[in-house]
Amino acid sequence: MNAASSSNNVPEAAGGRKAAPARHPPRLAHAAPPRPAAQPLPRHSPAVGGLTPFSTVDWPGTLAAVIFIAGCPWRCHYCHNPELQTRNARYDWRDVRAFLDNRQGLLDGVVFSGGEPLSEPRLPSMIREARRMGYRIGLHTAGIYPLRLADVLRYLDWVGLDIKADAQGYDDITGRRDSHRPAQACLTQLLTAGVDFECRITWHPDWLDETRLLGLARELARRGVKRFAVQGARSCPSTPPARLLGTQAQALLRGWFEDFAYR
After folding, report:
1. Model-level pTM?
2. Could you tell me where the DSSP H helices lie in 140-262?
3. Residue 142: inside a domain
């Protein structure tokens, strides 16, 4: 036994008794998630609009916390998070950061979602802070900000890119003119960056019939997309899809992509 570990080196307390070894505060591995801030946060605060403590579906195959950024310039008519369209900081990033620090070793990754997370000016520093804790980083984006995606791409381990429609149907979905162009620019970046990513579309035949959906998918496959998912449109997340994608269409899609999912 070396001197450093010898019991003879335990310091003595007053009266000649050996003092108990110093103890570090227990690690709060199961600390409760932060609550919304009780007082309005400063205007420059990161617009954290929500938090899911753990999820297995927001990054397929990865146990992750999901941080929702409030703010999005598009107004998709089927959006299930309309409260996140307007920029508003409901959670203090410092509290969220402390929560993530206590979950190290219990979670594999952190997903930044929205709203549109790239609308947050401080997102690059938030991503870097989460990476320094040892987390892998995922991003959900609609592809609205190609330059901002380029700024963070080297810090990302996975991206879920929302494809809204084919070129002629984009503006009807987003409520914004020429919205197809930035989304395609973001897709081009992902195809050349070597980052793992998935393209996915929220689908209803009233917006995009099966023939147009298959045309869109075939073009994505031709460009080199390996993972594609069709998410059936729902009146709310807990209800079944309003309309089902045909089995023949599903079979074609499975043949075009290395990984196809119908959700």
Report:
1. 0.86
2. 146-152, 170-174, 180-193, 210-223, 247-256
3. yes
